[in-house]
Amino acid sequence: MTSALGSAPTGRDDSRARPTPTRAHRFRWARAAGTGWLYVLPALVMYAVFVLRPLVLTLQYSLYDWNGIGVARWVGLDNYLTVFTDSDLLKIIGNAIVLIVFFSFIPVALGLLVASMVRRITTGAFGTVVRTILFMPQVIPLVAAGIAWSWLLSSNGLVNQALRAVGLGGVARAWLGDFDTALPAVGVIGAWVLLGLCTILLVTGMSKIDPALYEAARLDGAGPVREFLAVTLPSLRQEIGVCLTVTIIAALASFDIVYISTSGGPGLQTTVPGLEIYRLAFSQRQVGLASALAVVLMLLVLACVLPIQRLSRGEKP
Amino acid sequence: MAELLTKFPRRRTVLLASLLAVGMTATACSAPGEDRSSTQKSDAAVKTELGTGPVTLEMYAETGFPLAKALADEFSKQHSNVTFNIREDQFTVIVENAPRVMASDNSPDIIRLPTMVDLVKDDLLKNLDPYFTAYGWDKFPASQLMQLRVGENTRGTGSLYGMGLGYSVTGVFYNKKLASQIGMTQPPATVAEFEELLAKAKTGGVQPIMQFNKNTAGINFPHQALQNQFGDPTQVADWIFQKPGATFDTPAALKATQTIQKWAQAGYFTKDANALDYAGMVGEFQKGNGLFMFNGDWESANLDKSMPGNVGFFLFPTESPGGKHVAMSAPNTFGVSAKAKNPDAAAYFLNWVHTNAKAREISVTVGGSSPGGPSDLPVPSAAPNTVLAETLKASQQLGAENGAVDFTANATGGIFAAAITPEMQKLIAGQQTPEGYVKAVQAEYQKELSR
């Protein structure tokens, strides 16, 4: 830790290390720094008030038993103990982890496939149409998407009508109300929302790849698959990293889609931490337990996302 | 950690740490929340005069409940110095917001209330006892205001903390066309007869019950209707009012749960009940896609409009012939904030709602429910051959039989969302046993009471 800190180059260290700074120098540096601070001040104030303060308050609340209004009672780490021992809460955290498959892995994998298919048509009117269609789910408010999908997936919705039309009426069901299919159905909605985002990011990344690399690969006798594995995939490392980061956060912190399409039901089948935090805090008035779950969720997100950040930013092997 | 810091220049680390530290010291010195208990006196002198000075009453009401606004408009018409400033939210949103809104500096004068015990404990609700005496509300039937009393951590006895804008009754709506199709000529007199009708409908290809069970458990309606009949309804009321020693783990609740399970297995509920919400249920029933719907008189006016002449209503039948009817019936509760700026005017309005002839008429025609008030005042009549007239009659019958009980969903603040809804969804999908259901609901109840 010490060595890491010692080796970190920082502006302040540089100024201190300077042999004999003149008065004027020092004054100018101070003034420049002062002006710099002035520039970031508005953003800093907003960040402190709307991000840091709530963060600190959440940490504080998580150590209390509090209904949000009356006097709070100090309970130490009891709320955390509840989070890690309550079988319902563990199941809820498990649901979020299952959603990573749908919100993250499927959109990234499909996105790679779609991006390699459409990357040659990124220009022209057709390219614009393709991009618009793919990006549409990102533009539609999630609440509207949730409502539309709950119609599509309802017992007489379009999905079941289509199934019946092709003679598969036997598998038709209320997808969002069935214990076995509710979570995957919610996952499909999430995959639909995030596929466009991933595809656009990946297409942009592909357009930056030097065409000479493909040419070289082809001269070496590489087929499309080999080309994809040897050129496209390694070049997209950073974009894939960004896609995974954004989508994993979306999976773990999901709320709107679940709230609208299933409200966490049937049973606890689709309840996710975001929804449970909201319910605990506002409907059951257990602000302390809700805060503890929120802190655990934050740590879970960091534990998933930081390694990805490191891997995708590291030097190429 | 070391790796983390190499990515994070020291200056920024120092800055973040110091910002966090400042935040910590600014917020973490004291425990959150404040002690507001026993700041109000219940014996303070109250005025029963409205006066002539301009008054603006802040009202926080429920979306989709037009009665509150209709009454406010009529009141302003009769008392030109009083204007209303009405904010509306979905009921579930009010449930979540009420404590914070009432603790804030612009607390509403009149507010639609969820469960009251917590609000009283936190000293956010005005004690209406002085107004009870001043206005002579003792002339109301005592049972009418019973649910609005809060004592030492229990409901049903103690001081008065709310009044009803209409008093609702629940029961079973039925589609007359489908009823005659399966040979139902009159409402069932017993639970057994009701079950026969369900079976007849099922074999006749008619969906027996259209009931929602998505975001909140609508199947709790038939469940409690059965529970009320299978045992002593006082047991149910005691449990809702949090009387010491009351339990949900009773033979009556178990038998009701077993019956619901049986109905679910027989296909009396729709297959997609767990994906059907309240609006969806009402829509399907209006389209004629179900014979029965368990619901309350707040839908009467709406149903008269959408399926005129084709909808009927009956109180849930008794277990044995000639038994006493019991039904969930609750005031549309409104209370006065402890921090209200015009509590006297608010109480004047609440008294006016119960006693003014025009107001009582609006309660019936717009709200579809009984206006309550002193027993010697006549109940305005609804148009003949409407379901509104039927629900109004049922409400009077229930009053005469003294069979009103509150909803089990109102027992504690979190019982509906945390236990009844998810467990009921499991029950009808075959993921929970009746024994497990009863125990799970009681376990959550005890957990909440112990806090």
What's a quick, concise take on this entry?
With 317 residues, chain A is mainly alpha-helical.
CATH architecture of the largest domain in chain A: Orthogonal Bundle
Unreliable stretches covering 5 or more consecutive residues of chain A:
1-17
Which shape of chain B, going by the Cα principal axes? Answer: globular
Pair of chains with the largest interface and how many residues each contributes: A-B, 56 and 57 residues
Protein traits:
heterodimer, A: 317 residues, mainly alpha, MetI-like fold, two-stranded antiparallel ribbon, 2 strands, flat, B: 451 residues, alpha/beta, D-Maltodextrin-Binding Protein, domain 2, 19 helices, disordered N terminus, Extracellular solute-binding protein (chain B), signal (chain B)
How does this model look, in words?
The complex is a heterodimer of chains A (317) and B (451). With 317 residues, chain A is mainly alpha-helical. Chain A has 2 domains: 9-61, no CATH class; 85-313, MetI-like (MetI-like fold), CATH 1.10.3720. Chain A is built from 15 helices and 2 strands. The model of chain A is unreliable at 1-17 (pLDDT under 50). By secondary structure, chain B is α/β, with parallel strands linked by helices. Chain B folds into 2 domains: 55-168 and 330-399, 3-Layer(aba) Sandwich (D-Maltodextrin-Binding Protein, domain 2); 170-328 and 404-449, Periplasmic binding protein-like II (D-Maltodextrin-Binding Protein, domain 2, 3-Layer(aba) Sandwich). Chain B contains 19 helices and 10 strands. Chain B has helices at 2-6, 10-27, 67-78, 91-103, 117-121, 129-135, 142-146, 176-181, 191-203, 220-230, 233-240, 251-265, 278-286, 300-306, 343-355, 357-365, 387-401, 415-428, 434-449; strands at 55-62, 82-89, 110-112, 149-150, 159-160, 163-175, 292-296, 311-314, 327-336, 404-405. In chain B, the strands form 2 sheets. In chain B, strands 1, 2, 3, 6, 7, 8, 9 and 10 form an 8-stranded mixed β-sheet that branches. A two-stranded antiparallel sheet of chain B has the order 4-5. In chain B, helix 10 (220-230) packs across helix 12 (251-265) and helix 15 (343-355) crosses helix 16. The interface between A and B is large, with 56 and 57 residues. Chain A: Its main location: membrane. Chain A: This is Sugar ABC transporter permease. Chain A: Residues 93-308 form the ABC transmembrane type-1 domain. Chain A: It is found in: Cell membrane. Chain A: Residues 1-20 are annotated as: Disordered.
